[in-house]
């Protein structure tokens, strides 16, 4: 099985579990904290990954090291990884959980306009979109003279088209559908 698919499955499962217990943000923060601790102490990571050390000793060490650092639910997840022999993938799982968490709370989009907009106007558009969709927005700005005026926002497989060009096309369609007697 591909390591990315494997890590994504565990990350999705962990995030789902956290949503029901300690909260998604807390769980992701815990995993990132653990990943950092292991990265700063490679011997500790080697201990957890070692096949010569029994799972019970690893589980006890997890409780000693992380007992007051992370939530009990996160420690249970680490112990599950130890029991399944998958603790060596913790870094990939943590990265995947962080990406999934960000995807669920941050949307990337493209704001197209026919003329440059002021920072205040861009901030207002961004705030309006964040309020409407309940997510933080990361907008890249593109100047597109073909819009004639107005704006167009592309995000999450969706297009919000408030351009003059679109309005003119709609008007054209209406005029073409009118029957003249």
Description:
The structure is a single chain. The chain has eight helices and four strands, in the order ααααααβαβββα. The protein is of the alpha+beta class. The chain folds into two domains: 3-102, N-terminal domain of the delta subunit of the F1F0-ATP synthase (Peroxidase, domain 1, Orthogonal Bundle); 107-177, no CATH class. Strands 2-1-3-4 form a four-stranded mixed β-sheet. The longest helix has 18 residues, at 3-20.
Overall structural domain count: 2
Strand residues, percent: 15-25%
pLDDT below 50 for ≥5 consecutive residues: which ranges? Answer: none
**Tally of helical segments:** 8
Output the structural class: alpha+beta
Mean pLDDT: 87
CATH topology of the largest domain: Peroxidase, domain 1
Using only CA atoms, what is the Rg?
25 Å
CATH homologous superfamily heading of the largest domain: N-terminal domain of the delta subunit of the F1F0-ATP synthase
The geometry reads as elongated
Please list the strands of the largest sheet in the order they lie side by side: 2-1-3-4
What CATH architecture of the largest domain would you give? Answer: Orthogonal Bundle
Name of the CATH class of the largest domain = Mainly Alpha
In total, the number of strands is 4
The succession of helices and strands, N to C, reads HHHHHHEHEEEH
The helix content is: 55-70%
- Largest pleated sheet: 4 strands, mixed
Instruction: Report how far the terminal alpha carbons are from each other.
Output: 68 Å
């Amino acid at each position: 099985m591909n390591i990315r698919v494997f890590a994504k499955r565990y990350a999705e499962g962990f995030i789902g579990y956290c949503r029901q217990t300690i909260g998604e943000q807390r769980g992701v923060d815990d995993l990132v904290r653990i990943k950092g601790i292991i990265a700063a102490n490679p011997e500790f990571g080697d201990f957890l990954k070692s096949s010569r050390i029994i799972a019970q000793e690893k589980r006890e060490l997890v409780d000693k090291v992380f007992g007051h650092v992370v939530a009990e639910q996160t420690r249970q997840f680490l112990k599950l990884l130890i029991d399944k022999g998958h603790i060596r993938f913790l870094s990939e799982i943590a990265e995947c959980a962080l990406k999934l968490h960000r995807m669920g709370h941050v949307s990337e989009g493209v704001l197209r306009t026919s003329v440059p907009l002021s920072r205040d106007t861009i901030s207002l558009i961004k705030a309006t979109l964040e309020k409407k969709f309940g997510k933080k927005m990361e907008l890249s700005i593109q100047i597109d003279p073909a819009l004639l005026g107005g704006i167009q926002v592309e995000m999450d497989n969706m297009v919000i088209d408030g351009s003059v060009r679109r309005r003119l096309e709609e008007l054209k369609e209406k005029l073409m559908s009118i029957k003249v007697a």
